[in-house]
């Protein structure tokens, strides 16, 4: 399969290795840092504007950028049809036949996705991360290296779970929230919050969450609408 990578930073390096391990052929690496096109080892390097000519070659695309917001913005901005995105799973990752992985998602070496785990589109399940049974991981999420989502955990869109963090069973991380490296989450975390430590405490909340709390509203209930990922079979 011919693959085009969008982004050429550290995260892209790892994806390039996964792509090679899967015997795909990288035909283009595009990045905003390039203003002109050039070829090196048969790969076209250039700006994102070069995407259309490469897509004419029946290639598939992966957004190889670690920042969840930038992946989200790029996916919105690009005229790439959903079926043109590929999901990549490193050969050493263990993925249950009863797990689902959305388009544009990458599963790094030694990660584990157990039975009933649903992972959405354009997610990163990073090196050695564990996504246990019956997890729901929405689009544009990053589960960092060695993080553990125990059973029945829900991670809403765009959330970022730091390296080696642990989420205990049944808890929810709200949309676009960030969990610090090494933290242990033992309660639901509302949307747009930053939580750190063991047990994790919220150190930063979105203004809207603060207003709800001041007015007696239930912040979590208001923000917990978790967009479940669409079900796409593994490639
Ligand atoms: C392959 C890869 O690299 S994948 C990338 C993986 N990346 C990660 O895992 C990074 C995760 N990021 C973190 O843990 C960061 O520290 C964040 C995002 C949680 C916080 O970052 P910032 O908003 O810049 O917070 P800042 O550094 O100002 O710290 C604020 C407070 O939280 C504390 N804090 C920050 N991170 C943590 C943490 N992980 N655990 C415990 N406490 C923490 C700080 O000590 C500080 O406490 P203080 O106010 O008492 O001094």
Task: Please tell me about this protein's structure.
The protein has 235 residues and is of the alpha/beta class. The chain is built from 5 helices and 24 strands. It has helices at 10-21, 51-55, 68-77, 207-214, 219-223; strands spanning 2-6, 25-30, 38-40, 43-46, 60-63, 88-89, 94-95, 100-101, 106-107, 112-113, 118-119, 124-125, 130-131, 136-137, 142-143, 148-149, 154-155, 160-161, 166-167, 172-173, 178-179, 184-185, 193-196, 201-205. The strands form 4 sheets. The protein has an 8-stranded mixed β-sheet with strand order 6-9-12-15-18-21-23-24. A hairpin with a 2-residue loop joins β3 and β4 (43-46). The longest helix is centred in the N-terminal third of the chain and has 12 residues, at 10-21. It is globular and about 55 Å long. Mean pLDDT is 90; it is low at 218-235. Residues 126, 144-145, 162-163, 178, 180-183, 194, 196-197, 203 line the site of acetyl coenzyme *A (ACO).
The ligands found in this model are: acetyl coenzyme *A
Would you report the number of β strands? 24
Strand content: 25-35%
For the residues shown, what is the average pLDDT?
A: 90
Order of helices and strands: EHEEEHEHEEEEEEEEEEEEEEEEEEEHH
Distance between the termini: 12 Å
Put simply, the count of helices is 5
**Sheet having the most strands:** 8 strands, mixed
Q: Which of globular, elongated, flat, extended, rod-shaped describes the shape?
A: globular
């Amino acid at each position: 399969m011919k693959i085009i990578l969008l982004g050429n930073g550290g995260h892209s390096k790892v994806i390039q290795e996964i792509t090679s391990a899967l015997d795909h052929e990288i035909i283009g690496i595009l990045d905003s840092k390039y203003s002109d096109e050039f070829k090196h080892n048969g790969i076209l390097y250039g700006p994102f504007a070069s995407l259309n000519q490469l897509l004419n070659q029946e290639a598939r695309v992966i957004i190889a950028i670690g920042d969840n917001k930038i992946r989200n913005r790029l996916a919105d901005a690009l005229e790439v049809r959903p079926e043109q995105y590929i999901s990549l799973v490193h050969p050493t990752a263990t993925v249950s036949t009863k797990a689902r992985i959305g388009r544009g998602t990458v599963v790094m070496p030694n990660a584990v996705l157990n039975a009933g785990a649903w992972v959405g589109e354009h997610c990163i399940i990073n090196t050695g991360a564990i996504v246990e049974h019956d997890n729901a991981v929405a689009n544009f999420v990053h589960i960092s290296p060695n993080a553990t989502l125990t059973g029945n955990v829900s991670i809403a869109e765009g959330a970022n779970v730091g390296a080696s963090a642990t989420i205990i069973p049944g808890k929810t991380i709200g949309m676009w929230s960030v969990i610090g490296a090494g933290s242990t989450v033992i309660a639901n975390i509302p949307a747009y919050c930053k939580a750190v430590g063991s047990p994790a405490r919220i150190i930063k909340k979105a203004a809207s969450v603060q207003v709800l709390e001041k007015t007696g509203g239930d912040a979590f209930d208001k923000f917990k609408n978790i967009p479940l990922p669409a079900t796409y079979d593994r490639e």
